[in-house]
Structures are given as C-alpha cells and as structure tokens.
Design goal:
Layout: H1 3-10, H2 22-25, E1 32-36, H3 46-53, H4 55-68, E2 73-79, H5 83-96, E3 101-105, E4 108-109, H6 114-122, E5 137-141, H7 142-152, E6 159-166, E7 172-177, H8 182-188, E8 197-201, E9 208-210, H9 212-215, E10 226-231, H10 235-241, H11 244-254, H12 260-263, H13 266-269, H14 276-285, H15 309-312, H16 322-327, H17 334-347, E11 370-371, H18 372-378, E12 391-394, E13 399-403, E14 413-414, E15 421-422, E16 427-430, E17 440-441, E18 446-451, E19 454-458
Parallel strand pairs: 1-2, 1-5, 2-3, 6-10, 7-12
Antiparallel strand pairs: 4-11, 6-7, 8-9, 8-10, 13-19, 14-16, 15-18, 16-17, 18-19
Helix pairs in contact: 3-5, 4-5, 4-7, 11-14, 14-17
Domain Soluble ligand binding: 162-207
Domain RnfC Barrel sandwich hybrid: 395-447
Keywords: 4Fe-4S, Electron transport, Iron, Iron-sulfur, Metal-binding, Repeat, Transport
C-alpha cells in the first residue's frame, strides 16, 4: 500500500488552517506525529465532535500513518477539560490496542497554534519562521486524519465537517459536500434569529469576517472550519470596519507602551524575537505625511522602515489576535498592523532572516496563558461560548461551487470539459505534475461548468 499516493489521489489537504497538501507534509521522516485536537478557536466544535463520535477511526488512522511511514510516536493533543473526548479516545485506544498516547493541555488560547502545540507536547521550540519538522514533528488536525482514513478506503475528499453557531436557532456540526453554499449551511442550522447579522468564516479570533451579502455568495471549501453568524455592529464587526488611518492615528495618540501586547504574545513567549509594542511605536512615530490627512494601504509606511530590525519581526506574527483582543488596554490593533507589514515585506521581496540557533520559552509563560473562556468574552462572543449541545446534521446539495485553489500551492487544473456530466467522487481537476497542490473531486453528481477559477456542479 502506497499511503502517500492514496492521500495524493484523494486530494487531502489540512482541514484546519491554510490547507497544506497532506501528501507532501507526510513525505518527511519525523520523530513524532502530533494530532491537534485542541480546537484552537473559541466556539468551534468540529474536532471535538469527531473525537467523540469517530474516535476509533481517528485512532486507527494515527496508527496506520505511524506504521506505514515508520513514525516512532503518535500523540493526540487535546485540552484536559474535554472530558467526553478523553473518555471516547481512551476507550478506542484500549479497544484497538493502540500505541497512540493522549497529551492533555490546559484550556488556553491559542493552544492549537501549530508551534504552540509542538512546544506543549515536546518541550521543543520551533525556530522563528520555522516549521514543526525543524524539531522532528509533524502536526495534523483531527479532521485531516479522518480524511486520510477515508483516503485509505478509497474515498476522496468531497465532504466537509464544520461548525455553524452564533445567532442561529440550532447551533450545529454539519457534514456537507465541499462547495455547499454558506446560505444552505445556515439554513441547516435553523436559520438566523436576527436580521442584523454578519458572518465570520472560521473562528472569532483568526477567521475572515464578511458582510451578510458576501456570505450569501460564499461556499464551503476544504479548509472551512466554521461559519459564525454574529451581530452586525458587534465587537468583531466594529474591528473589521476600522479604517487604516484611524487605526494608525489611534496608535500614535493612545499607545502607552505598556508592553502587554509583547508580554502576552504567544510567539514571544516561545522565545521568538517578536515585540509588537516596538513595532507599534515605530510605525506610529514614523507615519508618512499626508496632505489630505488620509492614510491608505498603498501609502502608509515609510519604505526605510522595512529595513528596521524590529519592524521585520512582524513577519513571524501568527496573527492570533491576543494582542488586540486581550492584551491592549487601549483597544489598539497590533495584529492588523503586523499583517499589513507582512504584506509590505512580501511585496518588497524581503524574506525573514533568522538570527541565532537556539530559542528558549519565557520562564513566565505558564502564568501568561490566556484562558479560552475569557478571550471569547473579550472578542465579543462570550454569549455563545457555553453552547454545548450542537446538533449533528448531514445533507447533500443541489449545487456546489468548487474553487480550483483551496490549498497552499498552485490551483488544480480541470480535466473535464465544460457542460459534461460528472459523478460524485470523480476527479475533475488535477494537481499539475511536479507542483505543490491537490486534486479536486466532484462532491455531488450533476452537470459541471467551468466558471473562471472554479467548477460549478448542478444536480439534474
């Protein structure tokens, strides 16, 4: 059995992040395979559902990967507060006589950050701008391993588990075809309980906020972890609407250099040289002069600042949002500033240059972990945090929209003609030979049309 080929053929990519092609990640030779079950973002319940209801499939999938790829150790990392999940996984491990171990973590944010979970499990610090493999680890989340288990059974990646919660009548964990509309998913969760809402694709901390109108034109991809329906003009909506010039002017006027953003930064606490308070000070004090008093994304930073050592550290920001949602007493937005700087560095062709070869976590790190419940409240979603009884629902779709690019790397290339009939599971777009990418399969049966950068399938 060629496990890597099975995973490639099935089009499996990371389900919980940027969508790195799983067949490429597993080609490495790590010392440990870590399954991320921390469900980093508040409100999301997908991986927790899978750990309870698909525990044997998950454990057997980890065993299979470790055995076929000669990985010495496999661990599932999850929070010690996940009592039902721990019970289900422990029972599965005993029943299957598995060597998989559980690693129980505190309930903090961002426990599921890839570099954080590696440190929690191994005690090793992933270098700045590095990857877990730099310290002998590979990290995959729970849903990804479930997809790998399906791939071994010849089932391509055509269906997606996700959480729909917030201002909906029936908060739910759904299983739907990839490409299903957000509108259908929200209706599956009972529809909205208010007509003044916006949507976040993903979690409340790192997800992508969008207007209701934009959400009604969006579709589920392989990396969609959740759909949050939240109040319009609520805390998350207000933050996303803050104009750049207002954000920077507030930083110049209100930043008190308390250093809380740095002290609580998860990457800084791992020993990385990221110091958001220094970045905020230098940006605020060196804003370009604007005759019309307007700052735009095309002209907001002095080019010479990109040569500054502290400014360049923005490249290693994980954009977790602890700095702006939890740490800053003045309500400033270091995360957004860091994100913009990363874009400027990329546009200027400046790559991060790592200094040193050893990094040690801050001795105060155990006392500075941000409680998940508290950051949910600060983020403005505390009202939904205790929703526990999510309904599980499965449904097909009469129409799906499948983007050719749902992963890190290049888009898949169509292997079908416009207007042909396709069957569910059929390969409709392939990863170009020798490129980083993933295959794409029909998630329903119907007539396929090539529509720009996507393939639309309509049931007939």
């Amino acid at each position: 059995m060629d496990l890597i080929k099975q995973i490639f053929d099935s089009g499996v990519v990371g389900c919980g992040g940027a969508g790195f092609p799983t067949h490429v990640k597993l080609k490495a030779s790590p010392e440990i395979l870590i399954i991320n079950g921390a469900e980093c973002e508040p409100l999301l319940r997908t991986d927790r559902y899978l750990m309870i209801h698909e525990a044997e499939k998950l454990v057997s999938g980890v065993d299979l990967i470790c055995r076929e790829l000669s990985i010495p150790e496999g661990r599932i990392a999850l929070k010690k507060t996940y009592t039902k999940e721990i019970e289900a996984l422990t029972a599965a491990i005993e029943k299957l006589h598995s060597k998989v171990q559980l690693h129980l973590m505190d309930s903090f944010y961002p426990a599921g950050d890839e570099q954080v979970v590696v440190y929690e499990v191994t005690g090793k610090v992933v270098p700045p701008a590095g990857i877990p493999l730099d310290v002998g680890a590979i990290v995959d989340n729970v849903a990804t391993i479930i997809a790998v288990a399906d791939a071994v059974s010849g089932i391509p990646f055509t269906e997606k588990y996700l959480t729909v919660t917030g201002e909906v009548r029936e908060p739910s964990v759904l299983k739907v075809p990839v490409g299903t509309s957000f509108a259908q998913c929200i209706e599956m969760a009972g529809g909205t309980i208010s007509d003044k809402v916006m949507v976040v694709s993903g979690g409340p901390m790192m997800g992508a906020p969008m207007s209701w109108e934009a959400a009604m034109n969006a579709s589920v991809t392989k990396t969609t972890s959740g759909i949050l329906v939240l109040p319009k003009d609520g805390a998350i909506d207000r933050r996303r609407k803050t104009q750049l010039n207002h954000m920077l002017n507030r930083a110049k006027a209100a930043c008190i250099q308390c250093t809380f953003c740095t002290q609580l930064c998860p990457r800084h606490m791992l020993g990385h040289p990221l110091q958001p308070h220094r970045i905020m000070r230098k940006i605020a004090m060196n804003m370009p002069h604007q005759d019309n008093n307007e700052t735009t994304k095309d002209h907001w930073i002095l080019p010479e600042l990109l040569e500054d050592k502290d400014i360049r550290q923005a490249a290693i920001c994980s954009e977790c949002g602890v700095c702006e949602v939890y740490a800053c007493p003045m309500g400033l937005q270091p995360r957004v500033v860091n994100s913009l700087i990363k874009g400027e560095l990329a546009q200027a062709g400046i790559r991060y240059s790592r200094e040193g070869d050893t990094w040690e976590a801050d001795a105060n790190r155990p006392y500075r972990k941000v409680p998940t419940k508290r950051i949910a409240a600060r983020a403005g979603v505390g009202a939904y945090y205790h929703i526990d009884g999510h309904t599980y629902k499965e449904e097909t779709a009469s129409k799906v929209v499948l983007p050719l690019k749902m992963n890190i790397g290049v888009p898949a290339e169509p292997v079908i003609s416009d207007g042909v009939h396709v069957e569910k599971g059929q390969l409709i777009a392939a990863c170009p030979e020798g490129k980083l990418g993933a295959n794409l399969h029909a998630s329903i049966s119907g007539t396929a049309h090539l529509t720009g950068n996507a393939i639309t399938i309509t049931e007939v």
